[in-house]
Design a protein that fits this description.
Layout lengths: L1 H16 L7 H12 L4 H4 L17 H5 L2 H10 L1 E7 L2 E7 L6 H12 L11 H6 L4
Helix pairs in contact: 2-6, 5-6
Length: 134
């Protein structure tokens, strides 16, 4: 009986500490990215709606959906200047490069690409590191 109780306690300890739980890299990245997004919200709005004629929306963004991952990484990493079309509207502004390291860029992009009605594949730090300026 004591052995059975010890086994049950041992197994339950592993489950509650996460030793048997798989870490979801996208979920972890999104949690970190949500905190980083606060620096983006000044231009893109708290809910990703952007500001009409000033800064493009990230919410339900056809631009995020239709552009390759490398292009989206380039924009955050190196900035963007000039005309783009997002959800049928033309925006012609300047986004400076963000002062994030490669992991932070991956995190904020994972958050944005999987929030606000968007859906995107996981971006790793290595993917960000591999992207060079245009």
């Amino acid at each position: 009986m004591k052995l059975k109780l010890l086994i049950i306690l041992y197994v339950s300890a592993f489950f509650t500490t996460g030793s048997f739980q798989q870490d979801d890299p996208l979920k972890s990245s999104m949690e970190r990215g949500k905190l980083l997004y606060k620096t983006c919200a000044g231009c893109h709005n708290k809910g990703g709606e952007g500001y009409a004629k000033i800064s493009p929306p990230l919410a339900k963004s056809d631009f995020l959906k239709n552009n390759k991952t490398a292009r989206i990484i380039q924009i955050v990493k190196f900035g963007l200047e000039g005309e783009i079309k997002v959800n049928g509207e033309i925006y012609n502004g300047k986004m400076p490069p963000q002062k994030f390291n490669d992991q932070q860029i991956a995190d904020v992009l994972n958050y944005v690409r999987n929030s606000f009605g968007n859906s995107g594949a996981y971006i790793s730090e290595q993917m960000v590191s591999a992207v060079e300026s245009r």
